[in-house]
Amino acid sequence: GNSVTQMEGPVTLSEEAFLTINCTYTATGYPSLFWYVQYPGEGLQLLLKATKADDKGSNKGFEATYRKETTSFHLEKGSVQVSDSAVYFCALMANQAGTALIFGKGTTLSVSS
Amino acid sequence: DTAVSQTPKYLVTQMGNDKSIKCEQNLGHDTMYWYKQDSKKFLKIMFSYNNKELIINETVPNRFSPKSPDKAHLNLHINSLELGDSAVYFCASGDRFANTEAFFGQGTRLTVV
Q1: Which of A29, A79, A87, A91 has the largest CB neighbor count within 10 A?
Q2: Which of A46, A97, A102 sits opposite B101 (nearest CB)?
């Protein structure tokens, strides 16, 4: 079946450090890939997405590239801020009607000043 | 102009009670979902409805019953609440045939005492 594996946290960084959160997936066909962010006490917000191989999603300084050959969608940011502290979820949606988002277990990021 | 709204935000109740969580979306989407987030932040799909038709029904106790009066609403009714039902429940909506991202509500934190 389809699944998503992301690095376990927590990830603790100082402000302006480089961030990478690894995400790999298992799926039949060509799923769409997403990163969602959950700030404390809030719901999930879409951070970025990519719908086909080699697509790069980007938003708020975050980037992720859909790598079909390595079945990966790693999240990166060149310089994190305290306000980036949140839980980050990698997710996939299979390319067929009637499916739902499948999430990784989430990675907690804590950024200190 | 909230896109996906769910009520209540917090729900504290005793074991054995029956409770409902309501969800409404004004995005014009044809598909709605219920997800459960456990204490470790893991998100798991519970149900999905498309135009009032149940299309995803994961392994969930039959004490949980979704009800969709129309495609803009998907309510979750829980009978005979148990301690293990304590979690955050998220409603979401999306476009079934576009297989794009889902939009999430703010969540309902259910605590069973």
Answers
A1: A91
A2: A46
